[in-house]
Fold:
Amino acid sequence: MATEKSKRPTLAHRAEYYTMRATLLGLRALSWEHACKIGEQLGALGYRPLGIRKRVVERQIAAAFPELDPSAVITLAKESYKHLGRTFVETALLESLGTDGVQRLVESVEGWEEVEEVMRKGRGAVMVTGHIGNWELAGAYVAARGIPLDAIARGMANPLFDAYINRTREAIGMTIVHDSEAVRRTPRSLRAGRAVAFVADQGVLGLASTFVPFFGRPAKTPRGAAVFALRFEVPVLFVVALRQPDGRFRVVVERIEARQTGERDRDIDNIVARFTERLEHWVRVAPAQYFWQHRRWKRQPADTPAELRDPSR
Structure:
């Protein structure tokens, strides 16, 4: 597994990590649903009393859904924190389910024939998702169905927690590639007929990106998935795993059109815009399941009109 250059854990990292491991040990003794409910309760604490990014979340939701009144914005914000807490617990406990258990968590699948058709050709595929539903489960499910999958992942601030999550991901079938290694590893994986998955909805400094509309506002969005798809002429599949009221998941796979017109930069931007459109669609379907805690419009073009600038400032 390719990893980021080793970081020496601090005392704070160790305290955070061992507290987390002790919590997870206790949760493993509970039923899946009971553990996930506790995750919701822990997530709710992030909104109140802790107020972690509370203003960012409320302002972004209000900007994305201007039709909501203030009380509805607050309700949706609270639900997003509960969702995030539950997602964290689900992700941390996925390893305990095994591949059969991961598949049993999914109650319905739409578009799986797209995956089978693409992988049957043996040329690999680019898979894209966003921070919606349980994106870790989406990757785990694809791997559990026997698809050879490399997941491009960013390193976390706490190196101990980062290593733990990566071990969990690999235990359920994914191969983890740090984003600093993506340029070197992705061509090899695609040539070997593997699928390569990108979570492509966070603009990061130093990462090749383009600006595309997200809820009508320009948002810096990584281009990597589109670049590799065009360079190696492989399909782009957008995948989401949305939690249903019973706690199980609906997985949806959609083919993203990837035209080659001869104007490479424009073709890349068009693919990025299309998968961002699909992400926005699913956020509208399940708004409480999006990661509003991230400042999605933090980086924008200098000439962005005032009314379309980052609402979380």
Q: What stands out?
A: The longest helix spans residues 70-104.
